Amino acid sequence: MPEITSRPAEEPTAKGSDRTRRSAWHRKASAPVSVWLVALLAVVIGGHWIPQQRWLLVHMVTLGVATTSILVWGQYFTESILHEKLGEMDRKRQVWRIRILNLGVLACCVGMVPSWPWVVVAGASVVGLAMCWYAIDLGLQVRRALPGRFDATVRFYSAAACLLPLGAIAGAIMAFSPEEPWRTRLLMAHQGLNIMGFVGLTAVGTLVTLWPTVLRTRMQPSQDRNGRRALWIMCAAVLVMTAGSLGGWWWLEAAGVLAELAGLCVVGVDLVRCAMKKPPRDFPGYSMGAAIIWFAIWLGWLAGTILIKRDHLLQEDVTALTVPVVVGFLLQLLLGAMSYLMPMVMGGGPAIVRATNAKMHTLGALRATVTNAGLVIWALATGTWTTRIGLGLAILGMAGFLPAMVAMVKTGVGMLRATRAAAVGRANHSPEDRSGTREREKGAPASKMRASTNHPAPAPTAPTSRRSFAGAAIGLGAALGAVAVGRRLDGTSTDSSSTGAGATATGRTTTVAITMKDMHYHPSSVEVPAGNRLVVQLHNADPEQTHDLYFASGATSRRLAPGQSQTVDAGIITAPTQGWCTIVGHRSMGMELDVTVGGAAASQAAGSTATARRKVDLTKAPGKGFRTRDAKLPALLAGRDHAMTLTVTESVQEVAPGATITAMTYDGRVMGPAIHARMGDTMDVHLVNRGTMGHSIDFHAGTVSPNAVMRTISPGASLDYRFTLHRSGIWLYHCSTMPMSSHIAAGMYGAVVVPPHDLARADREYLLVQSETYLDAANGKEVDADKIAAETPDLTMFNGHANQYVFAPLTAKVGERVRIWVLAAGPSRGISFHVVGTQFDTVFKEGAYLLRPDNAEGGGSQALDLASAQGGFVEMVFEEPGRYTFVNHSFVEMERGARGLIEVVS
After folding, report:
1. Residues in domain Plastocyanin-like (predicted)?
2. Which of 275, 719, 795, 819 registers the highest number of CB atoms within 10 A of its CB?
3. CATH number, domain with residue 717
4. Does residue 141 sit within a domain?
5. What is the pLDDT of residues 327-365, one digit of tens each?
6. Domain range enclosing 759
7. In the chain, how many domains are there?
């Protein structure tokens, strides 16, 4: 096997030697890793105040820490395997490549937080080009070197590096928020290429040679051969999985993931044999071994998820374990490998390497135990506090790497300086003095020789077994204590003044069966003796709707699809409390569960109250990532039979400058696509639900029985809706799933425009659909159902965004006839539509003309008044150039965003 440990130095290393230059290169090249680790801690501490925190956690690890480390240590292993040392110019070029890579990573992070997709594309392009450069360099090194036993590993390094640019392309496309099913398909391809491909191939290829070295044992006779087989299997697995993802073939996706797991098992057999022969005894062994176990767990879980969900697989299903696997597998593997390799690279001889190793492995068993116990708690916990504590433990365990690294560098640099000083001192002696010194050293005890060069006594490379056992026991005890604290915090009511507060735990458990159906929990109230633990056996019996259960203490279930069940531990009940469904609007429809203690009334503090309106600065322009909705009425659909697909998705979208909601949409935007067709045309609409809850659609333009076509469909399901356009008008369509008000306020509405037979031609034709929305106090949240019930909207919008046409005005010319179709989508407010500076000579409302240009009275109109779900159009001719304002003349609605401009030129 290749030599990857430091070589004993016969004489102290002189300044400017190859080893010194090599060590200095590693310090420069690895510097960004430390920066990213510190930034990672800042993001964790920043918590939910940092936008896109989950995304940043994943990509700061995968791109910032992991990719940089792979470039550094992949080159180190390549040189060791190929027995090739690069020159000074090659070193400088590699450092510049790493700097360029990190500029690309930084651009990706900067672009994703405020949703600037083109910045993300630029960053991903830089990352992809840097990795292609790295892959080409590895290939050239293999070509120059003589054939060796492990040169195939370097070829796989190069192949793995070629996969990351492909994964970056998928990630860049995802920055534009594609709709389902492409959102999930691209995410699966992204994870397959990056985690299974780039990271998985590099990690397994390295472990074939590094694992026995870390354990200080010989490789298994079959290890090289099995490593080659495994790497080929895993390469094929990545390609199969990616093809299945992009093609939407779930069975091919699952086959690819299972093949990756099989490849890992092929090489894993030899890794286990090495560990059985000589078990891990220090931090690198513990950390790297645990990392591979996390990778295997993730692959098995991912394959099982694909096989269970099949065609109903959604992005939320795929990302459930993304953060634990990225931290548990990728970051932990890197920290373990770096903890072993950094003292080797620093070098300086056996004594110095032993001393720096001892510093690097300080409290290794404790750190590894705390890290992995925290990750298990984080992945499995259901309570809010327990989850947070698990995350904190995992980060705390990994953060121990930084002080250990600082102590290692300080120790190594100090010993190297002392060694060089001793060497200079010997060189300054006369030949006779040096001869006498050598004669004295031959007979001097080893302890005195060490004292003469000021070396500290070398510490053992690994801690003793007793010390490792004690560290692991302390770490496990800390984790169990943290779980107990978390469960206590999750299970105890915060209302200490309520009846039953201060009651001691009885040690008994009250178990109740709760069924969810028709927007209620059955039963809706349960009584628990004070001090008993409450366990809820939850079942969703609703045939169409998704529901969950969240308690005021933080205990919660996952979102349960129809027919699914889950047991929820609500903790020790010491005071009245309440649970409710967190899906937007469901609580306001009656999905509340009252928990009483000894017959006491439910806590009123847990009830809902309408919050104050949120202030939004409408003088600002829309965000840079927002694309103004084209207000031009689409052209008439060709033909008379129109087939179309509407896909339901949920995503965070801007609805005003600096204000975002978790929107529910048809085809990816607040306000669905406008449909423009003739009377007598037939519509065939295929509705696909790619959201996380039940949705539906109601076309006011059709005259059909609502029983089948307007029913709520579960996530992953679809239905077909066929109707004929019998009458003219502008017709609303919207989600009819209860509560309708929440679904419409979240963006699920649109317009069908059916012109009357005798409609004359207009020079310009626009469509304006007014709606209102109700904001949570924080961005990116679901609409506030309490505000909807209290009728206190925060924004009133045209075409899904407040004031967008103030900054992107509609256009017209003097003398042109301009027709504006207007629809009040609600969910509750109507409109008095007015254009400042002109008059309407034509008004069409709810299927009939109220005013024509040639009316006998010579009259005109100043406003079109519409109640919620009503529509019509107005026509006007501008006589002078200028900037005209259109508004909802109910001015409070105008001041909330129902305003725009028409730029009229000569």
Report:
1. 655-756
2. 795
3. 2.60.40.420
4. yes
5. 888 888 888 888 888 887 777 778 888 888 888 888 888
6. 641-905
7. 3
Answer with the one of 582, 606, 630 that is the final residue of a domain.
Answer: 606
CA distances from 325 to 51, 199, 399, 476 (A): 21, 12, 17, 20
CA 87 to CA 21: how far, in whole Å? 10
Same domain? For 96 and 231 the reply is: yes
Q: Tell whether residue 522 is among the known ligand binding residues.
A: no
Do the domain assignments include residue 246? yes
**Pairing of β 675-676 and β 749-754:** parallel
Cα Rg of the chain, angstroms? 34
Q: Is 726 annotated as a binding residue?
A: no
Is residue 889 part of an annotated ligand binding site? yes
Locate 901 and state its tokens.
């401009």
**Structural domain contains residue 155:** yes
Same domain, yes or no, for 286 and 331?
yes
DSSP SS3 for 521: strand
Q: Are 650 and 737 in contact (CB under 8 A)?
A: no
The answer to the question of whether 748 is labelled as a binding residue is yes
Render pLDDT for 421-430 as a digit per residue (tens, 0 to 9): 877 776 665 5
Distances (CA, A) of 621 to 196, 488, 771, 807, 836: 42, 47, 20, 6, 22
Q: Which residue has the higher pLDDT, 785 or 767?
A: 767
Per-residue model confidence (pLDDT) at position 727: 95
Predicted TM-score (pTM) of this structure: 0.54
Looking at the structure, do residues 709 and 589 belong to the same domain, yes or no?
no
Is 735 part of any known ligand binding site? yes
Domain with residue 206: its CATH number is 1.20.210.10
Q: How far apart are CA 631 and CA 764, in angstroms?
A: 11
59 annotated to bind ligand: no
How far apart CA 576 and CA 168 sit, in angstroms, is 51
Residues 99 and 245 occupy one common structural domain: yes
Would residue 855 count as lying in a domain? Answer: yes
| Contacting residues for 402 by C-beta, under 8 A, at least 6 apart | 34, 37, 38
pLDDT at 602 over 50: no
Exposed (0-12), middle (13-18) or buried (19+): which is 74, by Cβ within 10 Å? Answer: buried
* Both tokens assigned to 749: 């509405």
